[in-house]
Design a protein that fits this description.
Helix content is 35%, strand content 22%. It is an alpha/beta fold and 312 residues long.
Length: 312
């Protein structure tokens, strides 16, 4: 297929419009005026339309010429971006970097890092996603993401690198008016069996699914995320463990009450995870920055690690 409108013709048309004359456009494009005139005449001939009103002294576009220019500038912009992306990829920077956040964390924890990264590499597109439990490992194994923040446990397959972020602390919480709040503490685990358990559904598509906070209650309500689990428990629909840092506001407002059990749930180790074979500069930048950060189980924030005090 022969393209009648070339990038060169569009650049020439753009220069004439901005400089308001063929001669000035020729100067900008480092061409002789006759070469500019030839480019436009050939474009008009190929299209079978007049792009300039030649009855006027200044180079003024016709309505069709204005249409071609306005749409053509989108093409020129796209060509510039493609050129930049090609150079970027050749230099080792990813065109797109996919970061998966484990749902036990909040995306807020990584927004500051993304803002910092954009200042040094604004052309790399960042795509955030959220997965639950095995879903984060599943996304990494299935190449749906490049980096997982908050991966739980060890890698389920070889070929992945891990860096520990810290531990997530879980509290057993119920709605303020829930009958369990009237019992002496610590409450026996058997006492909760009469109440529905709110469970976050595992988002894994390939790996065996699992559920967090499963307390073997007689009934279960499955929800898609930690946010939904918190909301359901605030409404008194059921009970279950929740990340301590995600319910500070609800507890402070009296919507949730933390109830100690006789068998507390141990903290969960979380890590940063990525493919060892991925050598993208953007990925390496995030990994190096995350290695300088630790997870605060109380605030849920990623905070700078404290450096050891130098010896005197």
């Amino acid at each position: 297929m022969t393209l009648l409108i070339t990038l060169d013709a569009l650049q020439t048309l753009d220069a004439i419009d901005r400089r308001h004359s063929f001669a000035a456009a020729a100067e900008e494009l480092h061409r002789v005026p006759s070469a500019v005139s030839y480019t436009i005449n050939k474009l008009e001939e190929d299209l079978g339309v007049e792009l300039f009103d030649r009855s006027r002294r200044k180079a003024e576009l016709t309505a069709i010429g204005r249409l071609v220019l306005e749409q053509g500038r989108h093409i020129l912009k796209a060509a510039e971006e493609l050129t930049e992306l090609t150079r970027q990829a050749a230099d080792g920077w990813e065109v797109k970097l996919r970061i998966c956040i484990e749902s036990v964390l909040s995306c807020d924890a990584i927004y500051d890092l993304i803002e910092e990264f954009q200042r040094i590499q604004p052309k790399t597109q960042i795509r955030l996603s959220e997965e639950v439990l095995s879903g984060s490992w599943d996304a990494l194994i299935d190449d749906r993401c490049d980096l997982v923040v908050g991966a739980e446990g060890s890698a389920p397959a070889p070929g992945f690198a891990l860096h520990p972020l810290g531990q997530v602390t879980f509290d057993f919480a119920v709605a303020a008016e829930h009958p369990l709040t009237q019992l002496p503490t610590p409450i026996a685990t058997s006492a909760i069996l009469d109440y529905p358990t709110i469970i976050v559904s595992d988002s894994s598509q390939r790996l065996p699914t699992r559920s967090a906070g499963l307390l073997d209650g007689r009934s279960r309500i499955y929800v898609p995320s930690i946010e939904h689990k918190i909301a359901a428990q605030c409404k008194g629909l059921g009970v279950g463990y929740l990340p301590r840092h995600r319910i500070t506001q609800q507890v402070a407002a009296g919507r949730l009450v933390v109830v100690p059990l006789d068998a507390a749930r141990p903290p969960v180790d979380i890590s940063v995870a990525w493919r060892r074979s991925n050598n993208g500069k953007g990925l390496r930048w995030f990994v190096e920055r995350l290695k300088q950060i630790q997870f605060d189980p109380e605030s849920g924030e990623l905070i700078q690690k404290s450096l050891p005090t130098p010896s005197l």
